[in-house]
Amino acid sequence: MSKRILVIGLGKVGSLVAHLLRDAGFDVTGLDCEARDDLPFRVATGDVANPGTLAENIKGQDAVFSCLPYHLNKTLVEAAVAAGVHYFDLTEDVPTARHIQELSKNARCVLAPQCGLAPGFIAIVGASLAEKFDTLRSIRLRVGALPQSPHGMLGYAFNWSPEGVVNQYLNDCEVIQDGVRKTVPAMQNRETLVIEGIKLEAFTTSGGLGTLCETFAGKVQDLNYMTIRYPGHLDLMRFYFHEILMKNNRKLAGEILVNALPPVNNDIVYVYAAVNGWKTVSGRREHVLDEYVHAYLPKNLAGRNWRAISWTTACSACAVVELVFSGEILSHGFLRQEAIPFEKFLATKNGRHFAPHNQEINA
């Protein structure tokens, strides 16, 4: 099977995705709105929002990977379905993912949105823990990308899309609560976490569960996702968005935050998953809490150092691409991240970076 893939959007994460796929044996072509001559593969230039440009560049490809802002993905996935090529993206936007799921019903290719860190990797981890239980009580999933050495009252740095972060803080969140699927407001239900001796807080944000609520409906009493931050962050963001009404101008809200909190290279990604329920152990039914807790640091890949948020997002996504092309998980239709076996994920060239023994610091 040929392995030609078009990576669209060659920003920080997009360029790493393209490098990693090339190193994994894929024939990579890039497409970006700006000319690039610093990459070791062919790059086409064009309007990535134009359906004609997309259709022309998709010709001859086996797959397309979107690293574009979420609002451009609907046009792209429609072009991919029309061409019959596999589609992958990093979107956290729930309506976009639902549109893709609807398109997948008649697709002859794999449609795999939400391939990043959260949603994405955290769903694979959570489902892997949950499958070992006979009866589930709760699934709690938490992820946070933070500066290692925070300063200022917010203790944060915008190493990810400001548009995406603002949407997470303001859009409603899907959960399962007391056995019922529902939506709840973002920035609620604060809890305290301690990971590797660091005190942290977590609160509800939108989009992190992907399709998990649909998958686990009727199977678990409580399922929720929260974002991890340093203590005090939530109160200040509530004030910012709700007290002075920055929620009414999301674009400006993001611009102000990025100006105040620019990216940092020395970041850390915390991943916490906890599943509570009952298992049969040595013939006895036991009440058990299983946890997955890791802190991921910057790493050297493709000849340079990458922030933790960049490589964890890109490597998770590329591992999914590897598995689809290997024929091990799905041949067509909608790919739920939680349907990916964690053991197979870790066995891929890119998934192996998540194994604890592959940790390294290159800050």
Textual characterization of the structure:
The chain has 2 domains: 163 residues, 3-Layer(aba) Sandwich (Rossmann fold), CATH 3.40.50; 185 residues, 2-Layer Sandwich (Dihydrodipicolinate Reductase, domain 2). Helices cover 31% and strands 29% of the residues. The chain is built from 11 helices and 17 strands. The strands form 4 sheets. The protein has a 7-stranded parallel β-sheet with strand order 3-2-1-4-5-6-17, with helices on both faces. A 6-stranded mixed β-sheet has the order 10-11-12-7-13-14. The chain has a two-stranded antiparallel ribbon with strand order 8-9. It is globular. The two termini are 39 Å apart. The C terminus is likely disordered.
List keywords for this structure.
363 residues, Rossmann fold, Dihydrodipicolinate Reductase, domain 2, 2 domains, seven-stranded parallel β-sheet
CATH topology descriptor of the largest domain: Dihydrodipicolinate Reductase, domain 2
Order of helices and strands: EHEEHEHEHEHEHEEEEHEHHEEEEHEH
Instruction: Provide the CATH superfamily of the largest domain.
Output: Dihydrodipicolinate Reductase, domain 2
What would you call the shape? globular
Number of domains: 2
> What is the subunit arrangement here?
single chain
Please give the CATH architecture of the largest domain: 2-Layer Sandwich
Strands side by side in the biggest sheet: 3-2-1-4-5-6-17
**Fraction of residues in helix:** 25-40%
| Beta-strand segment tally | 17
Low-confidence stretches: 359-363
The top level CATH class name of the largest domain: Alpha Beta
